[in-house]
Design goal:
Layout: H1 6-25, E1 36-47, E2 51-62, H2 68-77, H3 84-90, E3 94-103, E4 108-116, E5 121-131, E6 134-144, H4 150-159, H5 166-172, E7 176-185, E8 190-198, E9 203-214, E10 219-230, H6 236-246, H7 252-256, E11 262-270, E12 273-280, E13 292-305, E14 308-318, E15 324-330, E16 335-339, H8 342-350, E17 354-355, E18 361-362, E19 371-379, E20 385-389, H9 392-400, E21 404-413, E22 421-427, E23 436-439, H10 442-450, E24 454-462
Parallel strand pairs: 1-4, 5-8, 9-12
Antiparallel strand pairs: 1-2, 3-4, 5-6, 7-8, 9-10, 10-14, 11-12, 13-14, 15-16, 15-17, 15-18, 19-20, 19-21, 22-23, 22-24
């Protein structure tokens, strides 16, 4: 073994120094990403219509953000919160940000609010707006004195561009002559509620149901909403005139263009609850021809006035016109179901029914020669089953023994017509709930007969 000389030691030291220099020049590995912590934060935000509201969310921020000032900067840099000048453009009384920033064992909580000039508070304002041919209500928060009067609040809202001049609403409806309102006071915020006044009296907020005609979909349906109704409207005639004047409800001719059996309006006006309905051929409320799609009465929509419980009643009418009738099948019960309502078809598919599209057929127009209505009924007993018949007497008999009459399903040609293709009806003799099958498919027809079904012949003809 060679001995280590002074010269070799000096060489080793030189190598070590060189390696140290090299290591010193080597970039350090990237540091780990900064630790993030959860935070529940509330901060002001600018929304459409120049509205300032408070937005509360759960997010994560770097652990180094340990003061309210750093948090404000971080939220602004990440695009969540605007610069102070943006809020000042909406409300010139804003002077800065303030808030609290506290740490708990599990999370961080922060609330950032806007500070204002001395004596200025953040108040909540509720006010009417007129847009897109309708009047609605909007709420916003603005800086104002707690001692602000109602007249000053109206002027403030108009100055900020939130509330139109009274002339705008008078163009909407001439009876509206002034603003009326009340001060709102609760434990957190104080503000003003602004609504429209009417000639001779103050309006009342009334739950009301009224018909709306849609020519786009060739149907009439009933909408429910709360409307400011003058107290002077104490008859259905006056309510109809008011709704038509406000643009909520169409003229009678609009409904008649969709359903010629509509002759007039009728309804109730009791204890603040108003309902306007269409009268068909002198009978209220169901049209003689049927054009009725559904009547939906739900206990959950009951409204109580003066101890009297009333339930909202949604009635939809649809023009009988050319379209598709869908055949659906429930394998669990062996039931076939027919509907020309696409929404009903989709709902059944979602519930597990099969759409037998190869057996769909075209609807016959009600105005066509030899067109006859097909009535739809439902047996609520023995698991339920739908039944279709062109025989009004048969429909009336089933209705009298407990079946639910569901109106006209669609129109077809009479079986003696020279138009269309025949549709056969068969019944299952082993069924206890009235199971039938309607088909234009001769192979299906012969197969069911061979399986023991009772042949009831041609029931009608369809536009295949």
């Amino acid at each position: 073994m060679k001995s280590i000389t002074k010269k070799s030691v000096a060489g080793l030291l030189a190598v070590a120094l060189l390696l140290g220099t090299i290591f010193a020049m080597t970039p350090a590995s990237e540091s780990k990403a900064e630790e993030m912590v959860g935070i529940v934060v509330g901060y002001p935000c600018l929304e459409e219509h120049n509205t300032i509201n408070m937005y509360v969310t759960t997010t994560k921020i770097p652990k180094s953000v340990d003061s309210l000032e750093k948090l404000i900067s971080y939220l602004q840099n990440t695009g969540k919160m605007k610069e102070l000048s943006a809020y000042q453009e909406v409300d010139s009384t804003i002077t800065g940000f303030t808030g609290e920033y506290v740490t708990t064992d599990r999370t961080l909580h922060s609330r950032i609010t806007l500070t204002r000039q001395e004596g200025i508070s953040e108040l909540s304002f509720e006010f009417p707006v007129y847009e897109s041919g309708m009047r609605s209500v909007r709420t916003t928060r603005l800086g104002a004195s707690k001692d602000i009067t109602f007249e000053e609040s109206v002027a403030l809202l108009q100055e900020k561009g939130y509330l139109q001049d009274i002339s705008t609403f008078q163009e909407f409806y001439t009876k509206e002559i002034c603003f009326v309102g009340k001060q709102i006071q609760n434990s957190l915020i104080q503000g003003w509620s602004v609504k429209i006044g009417y000639k001779g009296d103050v309006s009342k907020d009334v739950p009301i149901t009224y018909p709306v005609a849609s020519n786009n979909y060739k149907k009439i349906e009933y909408l429910g909403s709360n409307i400011f109704l003058p107290t002077s409207c104490d008859t259905i005639t006056e309510i109809v005139e008011y709704l038509q004047g406000c643009g909520y409800m169409q003229q009678l001719s609009d409904y008649q263009s969709i359903d010629s059996t509509v002759t007039s309006f009728s309804g109730i006006n009791a204890a603040g609850l108003c309902e306007v309905k269409l009268v068909h051929n002198g009978e209220d409320p169901t049209p003689v021809e049927g054009n009725i799609i559904s009547v939906d009465v739900q206990a959950g929509t009951a409204v109580v006035f003066d101890g009297v419980t009333r339930q909202s009643r949604t009635v939809k009418y649809e023009q009988i016109c050319n379209g598709k009738t869908y055949r659906m099948y429930d394998a669990s019960r062996g039931e076939h179901f027919y509907t020309k309502n696409a929404d009903e078809k989709n709902a059944l598919i979602a519930a597990g029914w099969s759409h037998e599209s190869e057996s769909d057929f075209n609807v016959v127009g009600a105005e066509e020669t030899d067109a006859i209505p097909v009535y739809r009924l439902y047996n609520p007993n023995d698991g339920g089953m739908h039944f279709y018949t062109q025989d009004a007497s048969e429909a009336a008999h089933l209705d009298s023994i407990g079946w639910d009459y569901e109106g006209i399903s669609h129109y077809v040609y009479s079986k003696d017509s020279s138009s269309g293709v025949p549709q056969y009806r068969l019944s299952n003799p082993n069924s206890t709930n009235g199971e039938h099958n309607w088909t234009t498919n001769v192979d299906e027809y012969n197969m069911l007969k061979a399986a023991g079904w009772t042949d009831e012949g041609i029931c009608w003809r369809i536009d295949g």
